[in-house]
Amino acid sequence: MMTRRPTPRPTSKPPISFKSFIGNQFFNDERSNEASGLALAPDKSHLIVVSDNGKIFFLNLLDYNSGHCVWENDDIFNDNTDFEGVAIVNTEWSQNDKIAYLVHEGGDDDRPYLYKIRYTYNPNLDSCSVELVESHSLRGALPCLTTSDGIESLTWKVGTSNPAVFYVGIQDTGRVYDITSDGSSNGDVCFESGIGRDDISGSYHDGTYLWSVFGEEGELAVIDPARGGCTLAVIDIPTQWDTEGLVIDFENDLMYLAVDEQGGSDPSIVAVYDFTYNVDNKECISNMMPRRSCTGFRLCSR
Predict the structure, then answer these.
(1) pLDDT, mean of residues 12-34
(2) What is the DSSP pairing of strand 69-72 with strand 83-87?
(3) Before 163, cis peptide (omega within 30)?
């Protein structure tokens, strides 16, 4: 069932404005903790943050300064731990059975993988654990990756199940494809990034629109899959960094961005923004219409 996005309330603030950091000291204490993809727990109590060095973080949203936890165990993922995206299928997740999906980036000489995990997290004890449920190579679900820049974002296509469908963004092309939770392609149509270039770094589906962030550009694009993936808006992100992950909480008018550490000198950050931007009833931007080249692609051989 499709979720209905609440209409943002009138406000005198800019539509996107910086609010706070989450776990600032947590990331500052250990600078090898790299933040990449983000997912929001359905009960809004915590974020799951994955990293490209194999760690999985759980950030407490009830107290930005405490109760955070980090988990690391390379063995269960067979060293495929370049995690760039994480997503939760809301209909599979419950308080007693917390399920999430991770994506290993992959590249021209490295198969991308989708992992289904079960996890526990207790912010009162600063404890967390991860169990592997199943894994699937995505080599046959996408066109062959021609460079080392592979999958950079993962988001659940809201309302899909059995199997669930995800949008995955490819860094070296900026294109977004449909894949399923069993590691298959969901059809031969994909979408351009939203700004007509590569280096997509995070994405989020709200049940109607697909939002994509481009960290180096400092821009947030929104496309309408129902209209062939046409771009509805491109929005500048104030007070932004080289963003890696994106989540938008429309019910609470909040946006979360994850930023990887910069050259080993600065710690990762997860930033919170007040978010009141509304794209309902917007027309397609004429110079950002879908391109024919994003249909009928050939899947890579398994």
Answers:
(1) 85
(2) unpaired
(3) yes
